[in-house]
Amino acid sequence: MACRQQEIQSQQKNAKKQAGQKKKQEHDQKAAANAALIYTCTVCRTQVPDPKTFKQPLESKHPKTPLPPELADVQA
């Protein structure tokens, strides 16, 4: 009977530990995704990860604003 009680406690402890690790892993993924957003639009403050993806909405949403110098030679 004591063995069964220890087994139940062990299972509960393991479930709690796994839930904590899963929550921590989700948080790390969010942080990594936010860290990947490098470029920020100067007009609407939209963040994008790479120059190609940055140039497309900049040209379509803000056609009158000049392109930043780092996007001058990027192929969209």
TrEMBL record:
<feature type="region of interest" description="Disordered">
    <location>
        <begin position="1"/>
        <end position="29"/>
    </location>
</feature>
<keyword id="KW-0539">Nucleus</keyword>
<protein>
    <recommendedName>
        <fullName>Zinc finger protein 706</fullName>
    </recommendedName>
</protein>
<dbReference type="InterPro" id="IPR045230">
    <property type="entry name" value="MBS1/2-like"/>
</dbReference>
<keyword id="KW-0963">Cytoplasm</keyword>
<feature type="region of interest" description="Disordered">
    <location>
        <begin position="50"/>
        <end position="76"/>
    </location>
</feature>
<dbReference type="InterPro" id="IPR026939">
    <property type="entry name" value="ZNF706/At2g23090_sf"/>
</dbReference>
